[in-house]
From TrEMBL:
Gene3D superfamilies: NAD(P)-binding Rossmann-like Domain. Keywords: ATP-binding, Nucleotide-binding, Nucleotidyltransferase, Transferase. CDD domains: ThiF_MoeB_HesA_family (cd00757). This is Adenylyltransferase/sulfurtransferase. It comes from Hydrogenispora ethanolica. It comes from the Bacteria. NCBIfam families: PRK05690.1 (NF004281).
Amino acid sequence: MDQTTLRYSRQLILDGFGPAGQEKLRRAKVLVIGAGGLGSPALLYLAAAGVGRLGVADCDAVTFSNLNRQIIHDSTDIGRPKTESAAAKIGRLNPEVAVIRHDLRLNIDNVEELIRDYDLVLDATDNFTARYLISDCCYLLGKPVIEGAAVGYDGVLMTIIPGQTPCYRCLYPQPPADGVLPTCSDTGILGMAAGIIGTTQALEAVKLILGTGTTLAGRILTFDALTTGFRQVPWQRRAECPLCGENPSITELVEYKIQCRTKEVL
Ligand SMILES: [Zn+2]
């Protein structure tokens, strides 16, 4: 058996997978925005599964305070750009994956160019400015996006497919006000809570690519690490949604500058 077949042998024998499924993964182009607590496990599992082209977008460098959850980076990576550290780790895990580094801070001028060439997007960012840009842009470009968030002991995940599911603004039509949001640096975060959400984002991506199983489309997943409790909450498209509703008021990208309660500290 050749090395590639051996590498994927334990998933090739799964029902609903096989060589055809592996080929779908090899042809897939997936973008992970944020190589942090969510993006780390998502990138590792997508690479291990054999996604052919994997984009990594981040603008930060690795710090010691990242390492309780950002498992794609390690102590030897301190000070390195996260895209570089992640690309190196993916290269060692699975050299068959083409990694595309996007060492940039997401903004209204670069988000469309960033996303345009990918089949689907994992939003693994940690702030609402990026989240609205990514979810609006994916809706306007017709790209599926898997939204993940984790803070404290809690996580949440939603799979958004334009034209099929509610959009992010069906739930949150407008961003929260300045200064009301906590950040990881002032509320903390348990590594495993981020890990479970990031891993589940990768799982959703693989199911979308394979066309197998049932995705979370139309249901929001919440996770409470303290009780190990998972819940799925149905959500609906809203006719008055400013983005996907009957009379949308948002027809092009808008950028919000939303300040958290305290600034990120290292
Ligand atoms: Zn909507």
